[in-house]
Amino acid sequence: MSYTIEGESGPWELVIGLEVHAQVTSNAKLFSGAATAFGAEPNAQVSFIDAGFPGMLPVINRECMAQAVRTGLGLNAKVNLWSRFDRKNYFYADLPQGYQISQYAHPIIGEGAIDIELADGSTKTIGITRLHLEQDAGKSQHDQHPTKSFIDLNRSGVALMEIVSEPDMRSPEEAGAYLTKLRQIMRYLGTCDGNMDEGSMRADVNVSVRKAGEDFRTRCEVKNVNSIRFVMQAVEAEARRQIEVWESGGTVDQETRLFDTGRGITRSMRSKEDAHDYRYFPDPDLPPLVIDAAFVESLKAALPELPDQRRARYVRDYGITPYDAHVLTLERETAAYYETVAKGRDAKQAANWVMGDLFAAINRTKTSIAEPPVSAADLGALLDLMADGTLSGKLAKEVFEAMVETGRAPGAIVEERGLKQVTDTGAIEAVIDQVLAANADKVAEYKSGKDKLFGFFVGQTMKAMQGKGNPALVNDVLKQKLS
Amino acid sequence: MHPTDFTLAGALAALNEGAISAEELTRAHVAAVEALNPKLNAFITTTSEQALEAARASDARRKRGEAGPLEGIPLAIKDLFCTEAVRTTAGSKILGNFIPPYESTVTAQLKRDGAVFLGKANLDEFAMGSSNLTSAYGGVLNPWQRKNDPAARLVPGGSSGGSAAAVAARMALGATGTDTGGSIRQPAAFCGITGIKPTYGRCSRFGIVAFASSLDQAGPFARTVEDCAILLRSMAGHDPKDSTSANQPVPDFAAACARSVKGLRIGVPREYRLDGMPAEIEKLWRQGLDWLRDAGAEIVDISLPHTKYALPTYYIVAPAEASSNLARYDGVRFGLRVAEKDSDLRDLYERTRAEGFGAEVRRRIMIGTYVLSAGYYDAYYLKAQKIRALIAGDFDAAWAKVDAIVTPATPSAAFAEGENTDDPVKMYLNDVFTVTANLAGLPGLALPTGLDHQGLPLGLQVIGRAFDEETVFAVGAALERAADFKAVPAMRAGA
Question: Which residues pair with A469 in a beta bridge?
Fold first, then answer.
C-alpha cells in the first residue's frame, strides 16, 4: 500500500529527491592545507587561499578525492576517471573568492543506487544521480552586532560531497530511510561523520505532488534541512502546501523554500526569476582531475565491509532475523559490539541481549554504543555464566543491572553477592522436601488434579533458595517428588 | 663604464671579479631610479633602503662564498607580483593599501638566487592594457623619443610598461613582467629591449595577482637575450602550489644562446602579413629572415589558418576569466572598502568596485560577465574555447615543418599618449601578433632589431614549441648578433 496524502480531491502521491551535502572526513580542506576540525575559534582555520587573497591558487587535496571515490564505490556508482572543477560565480560576504569551486558539468562520481530498509521489513532501491566534490563557503553571523554582520571563514574551502538522488522516494519515511542509509554507508566508509547537528551533513529536499499515473508536476526545493526528522517533516509540510495550492485552483511555482522548524511550515526564499546566473565555467586554475583506474581498484580492495554485506553475513552466519541484522548493523560501533559478544557464543542470545538489555541501559544512562555502560567483553562473560549454568536468566538480569551500576565484571559481582546458581541436586531436594512438608494441603490438592499448583511449588522453592536454584533442576526434582 | 650600463651578464662577471660590489651596483641603480622616476613614473613603489640593505647582505654572502646565480643583481618587479611586506597594488586603486603577508614563488626564487629588488614597477591596472595608461598610478613615459617630435609623450606599451621602461632607461638590469596577451613582448618591443613570455606552466603563478589564469605567464625583461635567459632560469621551475605549473626540468637557457641556428627551419606564417602593415615593419621582418638564412637556417613559408580569430577569441577568454578572478576584490577582507554609514552588503560592493576599478577593468569585467551569462555562454565562451583549440592545432601542425616561427612583435612602434585611446578595439589590435602564443601556451620572445623612421625601436618575435625555450633563445641570440642593435633611448641613466 503506497503512501498518499488525502486531499479534498482525493489521494495525492509524493515525489521526493534529495541533494545531500556531506562534509568529507579529512584533516585538511579541499584546496588548501588549512585544518577542518569542528568547533575551533572563528577564523582560526583559514589560509590565504580560503580567504581569497590575491595570487592564491587552489591545489587539490588527494585524500578528499580518494574519499569521494570510496563513497562512490559505497553507493555502487560509476567512478569517472576524468572529472573537472568549475567555478560557480556569485557575490556573498562569506564567499571570499567570489566563486565556489564545484564539479558542475563533470562530476567525479556518476550513477549509482542504494537499497533502503523500510519499517514493514521491505526494501526499496533509490537511484543516485551523481556525487561531486565542491568547497564549502564560510558562515555569516547576523546576530552578533546590531548593525554589522560577522564572517567566520573556518568552513570556507572545506570539502563537501554533494550527493544527488533520483526522484525515487514517495513518502517521508522513504526520505528518512534514504538519509539514514546514506549516512550509515558513509560512516562505515569513514568518509563523512554524518553529524547533522554539526553541519557536516545537510539536505536540500525536492518535493512535488501528483495524482496517480501522472507525470511529474512542478517541484520546489526546501534548502538546508539539518536533521532526518526535519527532512521528514519538511517533505510532508511542503507536500501539503502544494496540494492546497493545486486544489484551490492555483499552480505551484518552481522556487527555493526554507523549512521553519518552529512552525512546521515551509517559507519562500527566492523564486525562479530571482535565481542567480552562476556563470559556470571551467576553473582555469585547476587542470582536469584524472584518476588512474588502478588507484580506484586499490581503494576498492581496501574498502571495509558495507552495511548490506554485513547484514547478509549476520543472517547467514549468525542465523539471526533480517530485522535484527538490520538493527545491529545500523551503526558500525553497534555491529562491532555485537560481533564481540556473539563470537563463540549463542549469536541469537547475544542479539537479544544487545538489542534488549544493552540498548535499554544505554537509553536509561544516556550513554552511547561508542561508550557503552557495559563493555562487550563483560556482556560476553555474562553470557558465558549463563551458558555454564552459573546464572539463571533471571539472575543474569540482576547481574547485568549491577554491571551497569558499578561497571564491574560479572564474575566479580556474582562472587561478591553470592548469586551463584545452586546446581547441587541434593541441596535442591532438601529445600523441596521442606517446601512440600510445609504445604502438605497443597500437595494433596495437586495430587487430586490441580495441576496449576506446580508453579506455586516452583515459586516457593525458588523463594526459599533466594532465586539461586537452577530452574531446570528445580522443575525436574519437583516433578519427581510430586509424581 | 657607468655601472648602469652593464648587461646583467657583464655585471655578474664584474661582481665575480670584485670589480664592483653589489652595494655600488645597487647604489648606482637607486640613484638612477631617484633621478629618472619622477619623469618616467616607471615605479609605483621604490624600496631603495631595502635594496641597499639587500645589496650589503649580498656582498656578505659573496664574501662567504655563497653567491647565488643572480647575486647582487638589481631588478624591478612588476607590481603584480606579491612581495612580502611591500605594498602590491596591481596598478589599481582597489589594492592601494594592500601589503601582502606572502611572497610570490617567482620573486622568492629571484631572492633565493641573490637578486636585489629596487621597487615595484608600474603597469596597466590588473595588467589590462597595452599602453600602461590604465594604471591608477599614472602612465609611464617611454624613455625613447621621436626624432622630429621629441615632446610627444610616448607610451612604453603595456601592461608591463614600468618594467620595460625601467630596463630601457638603465634604472634596472632586468625586470619581471607578466604576459597574458603580449604584456611582456609588446612593451619590450616599444622600449627597445628584450623580453620573453615562456611556455605556459614554466613559471609558477602562485602569488601573482591573477588576470586571466589560463593565459597569464611570468617572464623576464633585460637588455640582451642572454640576460633574459639568465633571469628565466631563476624564475622558472615546478611549484606544487600552482596546479598549472609544469613538472619539467629547467635547462641552462643561457647556454642555449650560443647554439648555432644552422639547419634550423624557421617558419614564416603568411597570415601575419597584415593589410596596411607599415612597410618598415615588413622590411624589418624580411631583414630578420635574411639574417637567419645567412646564419644557416632554412626559411619555410607556413600557414596558421585560424590566426584571424585569435584576437576576438582572446578578448572573450581573457575577460571571462578576469570577471571571475576579480570578484574577490569586494571590500570585505582586504584592499579598498567604500561604504556609507548605512551601506548594506550590495551597496558596499557597488561603491567599492565602482571607485576601486578603473574604466578598462570595469569594461572587461562587464564583457567577461556577459560572455559567461546564461544564453550567451555557448555562443561566446564555448565557441572561443573551441577556436582556441584550433589555434593551438595550427601550431601543432606547423611544428611538423619548422623549429621556430619568426614574426614582427608589434604592428607599429610606440605610439603617443592620446593615440589609440579613443577606441578600445584599436588598442586591442596591439596584441595581434602576440596573443596567439598565449592562446596556444607557447614561448615567445621579443627583441629589438631596428629603428623606424622616427628613430623608435622595432622588434621581432620568435615563437617556439612548448618547453623549447632553448631554440627560441638560440634564434633570438642569432638575430641579436646580426642586428647588433646599439641604439639607446634619450632618457637613460648616465645620459
Answer: A422
B421 CB within 8 Å of a chain A CB: no
Stretch among A176-185, A433-442, B436-445 having the lowest mean pLDDT: A433-442
pLDDT at residue A418 is higher than 80: no
Q: Do B242 and A57 touch (CB under 8 A)?
A: yes
- Cα(A241)–Cα(A265) distance, rounded to whole angstroms? 8
Q: How far is B491 from chain A (nearest CA, A)?
A: 34
Q: What are phi and psi for residue A339, nearest 5 degrees?
A: -65, -35
8 Å CB contact of B321 and A284: yes
CB A352 within 8 A of CB A320: no
Question: Is the Cβ–Cβ distance between A395 and A383 less than 8 Å?
Answer: no
What three-state secondary structure class fits B465?
coil
Chain A contact set for B98 (CB, 8 A): 54
Which of the four pLDDT bands, split at 50, 70 and 90, describes residue A1?
low
Q: Do B327 and A97 touch (CB under 8 A)?
A: yes
B116 pLDDT higher than 60: yes
Q: What is the pLDDT of residue B349?
A: 96
Phi-psi region of B385 (alpha: psi -120 to 50; beta: other; left: phi over 0): alpha
| B105 has pLDDT over 70 | yes
Q: What is the pLDDT of residues B332-384, one digit of tens each?
A: 999 999 999 888 999 999 999 999 999 999 999 999 999 999 999 999 999 99
Predicted pLDDT of residue A103: 98
Query: Across chain A, what does the average pLDDT equal?
Result: 93
How far is it, in rounded angstroms, from Cα A389 to Cα A412?
16
CA nearest neighbour of B171 among B58, B46, B79 = B46
Contact B156, B177 (CB under 8 A): no
SS (H, E, C) B318-358: HHHHHHHHHHHCCCCCCCCCCCCCCCCHHHHHHHHHHHHCC
Decide if pLDDT at B495 tops 80: no
Residues in chain A within 8 Å Cβ distance of B345: 92-93, 149
CA distance B364 to chain A (A): 15
Provide the annotated active-site residues of B: 78, 159, 183
Of B100, B242, B333, the CB nearest to A51: B333
Find, among B402, B421, B409, B386, the residue nearest to B483 by Cα: B409
DSSP letters spanning B157-184:
-SSSHHHHHHHHTTS-SEEEEEESSSTT
∠ CA A441-A447-A450, nearest 5°, is 85
Q: How many CB pairs under 8 A join A and B?
A: 101
pLDDT tens-digit series, residues A226-278:
999 999 999 999 999 999 999 999 999 999 999 999 999 999 988 776 778 99
Three-class SS of chain A: CCCCEEECCEEEEEEEEEEEEEECCCCECCCCCCECCCCCCCCCCCCCCCCCCCCCCCCCCHHHHHHHHHHHHHCCCCECCEECCEEEECCCCCCCCCEEEECCCCCCECCEEEEEECCCCCEEEEEEEEEEEEECCCEEECCCCCCCCEEECCCCCCEEEEEEECCCECCHHHHHHHHHHHHHHHHHHCCCCCCHHHCCEEEEEEEEEECCCCCCCCCEEEEEECCHHHHHHHHHHHHHHHHHHHHCCCCCCCEEEEEECCCCEEEEEEECCCCCCCCCEECCCCCCEECCHHHHHHHHHCCCCCHHHHHHHHHHHHCCCHHHHHHHHCCHHHHHHHHHHHCCCCHHHHHHHHHHHHHHHHHHHCCCCCCCCCCHHHHHHHHHHHHCCCCCHHHHHHHHHHHHHHCCCHHHHHHHHCCCCECCHHHHHHHHHHHHHHCHHHHHHHHCCCCCHHHHHHHHHHHHCCCCECHHHHHHHHHHHHC
